[in-house]
Structure formats: structure tokens, C-alpha cells
TrEMBL record:
GO biological process, one term: microtubule-based movement
Top-level division of the source organism's lineage: Eukaryota
InterPro entries xref list: DHC
GO molecular function: dynein intermediate chain binding; dynein light intermediate chain binding
A GO term from the CC aspect: dynein complex
Record's protein name: Uncharacterized protein
Length: 261
């Protein structure tokens, strides 16, 4: 956002952004079916997937409506700060010459009675507060991502504890089965947590750039968690088979004890 030619505007200008958005983003997205290639000779023909577009006019209209809503929102952002730069919208020399005539008129704009009020420190304070708000937003975003990563790690720790537990009774096997099924039901929710972390990381990388504090607001590292997650999910899905094996071992041990008795 810049103040240029006596008005608040975006750089690049909003109309240029709109044109680029429609040309590069919307047209590319909506034209995807025209560029898709299939796996058969028939689907390799140009325009094979065009019916996807032709049969979804309502969906295409929603895409354009969302784009217009986006640019209306950007225009509203400009209006929020118009009052901040109102002095720049007028020819100050002409305005002052026309509006002021008596010495008291000038004095009224320099002082409050016998006191001169300086706004220098207030302007510096506003700049500092805006900077702190930006940093607080980024730090909060990272804290949320870290907390969600810890949620995933805690979930996997609970699962590994379950995997390592050796049941010694039928009741313990039944209890372990219930716990495992509960964790399987929770996999979908944890997958959503992982997705939210990745979204936060994407925003962190975008917002931390240029702050000079990239290290403090670095994206949350999911390398180890992602590597462990696949193996963990597979092991959890197969846990019923492990319980059946434990049940067989327990039955064999009981039979042996009965025979010995």
C-alpha cells in the first residue's frame, strides 16, 4: 500500500493486480481440463475433458464471484487508511492560504493555548506498534504450529506404548483392541492437524521473509514426524493382527499350563 499522486493505492495498482489475477490464476485454473492428458488414445485427443468445464457453469461463476469478492475486500482495505493520509489529498499551500487569515488561525494549528504539542513520538510509537503486531502474529502462528506438532507426537507416543504392551490376559487384549480402534478413528483428525501445520508453515515462510528474524519465525520442521507417521499409521492399522497373535500365544500358554497341571 502506497500513497501516490494524492491518493492511497496499491503497488502494483489494483486494476493491474485484477488483470494479472484473472489472466494468470483464474484462466490457468479454469483451463486445466483443456490441458489434461489421459491414459488412453481416446483421452489423449484435444478437448476430451472440455465437458468438465461445459457442465459446470455454476462452479465457474462461483470462482469469478470469489475473485470479485477478493478485490472488493482489497479496495475496502484502502478505505480503512484514507483518514491517515487525508492531508496529502489536498493542495496544502492553496488550502492553507484560503482557510487561514488571522494570526490566531495559524497559532491554533501550532499550539494548544500556550503549549506546543509534538506528534513525533506518537508517530514513532505507531510504527513500533505495527511492527510488534506483525511479529506477534507470526510468533502466535508458529506457537500454534508447534503445539499441533506436539499433539501429533503425543498421539504417536501413546500408540507406540500400546504397540509395546504385552497382554497377559484376555481382558487386557480386549482393552488394547478398544484403544487401538479409538486411535484408528483418530487418524483422520490427526491428518487434518498435519494439514493445518503445513498451511501454517506456508504462511510462516511467506510472512517471516524480510522481517530480519527468519530464524526466530522459521517454519516448524516436520521431517521426522512425517517419516514416523507413515510407519506408525501402517502399524496401527495392522494392530488387530498383532492382537490375534497375542491371543493365540496366550491360548497356547494356558493350554500348556493346563496340561502341566
Amino acid at each position: 500500500m502506497v500513497f501516490r499522486q494524492h491518493k492511497l493505492q496499491y503497488d502494483p495498482p489494483l486494476e493491474e493486480l485484477r488483470t494479472k489475477h484473472y489472466k494468470d490464476n483464474l484462466n490457468t485454473f479454469l483451463g486445466l481440463p483443456l490441458r489434461m492428458k489421459g491414459v488412453s488414445d481416446l483421452s489423449e485427443r484435444p478437448g476430451f475433458f472440455r465437458p468438465i468445464m461445459d457442465s459446470n457453469p455454476a462452479g465457474i461463476a462461483c470462482v469469478y464471484a470469489a475473485a470479485e469478492a477478493l478485490f472488493n475486500q482489497l479496495a475496502e482495505e484502502l478505505k480503512k487508511y484514507q483518514d491517515w493520509v487525508v492531508l496529502g489529498t489536498a493542495e496544502l499551500d492553496e488550502f492553507v492560504d484560503e482557510a487561514l487569515s488571522e494570526v490566531a488561525d495559524w497559532e491554533l494549528n501550532f499550539k494548544v493555548d500556550c503549549y506546543t504539542v509534538s506528534l513525533l513520538h506518537v508517530k514513532a510509537c505507531v510504527d513500533e506498534q505495527m511492527k510488534r503486531l506483525q511479529e506477534a502474529l507470526i510468533a502466535s502462528l508458529r506457537r500454534k504450529a508447534v503445539a499441533e506438532k506436539e499433539q501429533i507426537e503425543e498421539f504417536m507416543r501413546g500408540g507406540k506404548e500400546l504397540f509395546n504392551r504385552q497382554a497377559s490376559t484376555v481382558e487386557e487384549i480386549g482393552k488394547a483392541g478398544l484403544e487401538a480402534r479409538g486411535m484408528v478413528d483418530g487418524l483422520a483428525e490427526l491428518a487434518q492437524v498435519k494439514r493445518r501445520i503445513e498451511e501454517k508453515n506456508k504462511l510462516l515462510r511467506a510472512m517471516a521473509a524480510g522481517t530480519g528474524r527468519e530464524a526466530a519465525f522459521a517454519a516448524v520442521d516436520l521431517t521426522e514426524a512425517n517419516a514416523a507417521w507413515e510407519a506408525f499409521s501402517t502399524q496401527l492399522q495392522q494392530f488387530d493382527a498383532n492382537l490375534e497373535e497375542q491371543k493365540t500365544q496366550l491360548a497356547t500358554a494356558i493350554e500348556k499350563q493346563v496340561d502341566e497341571y
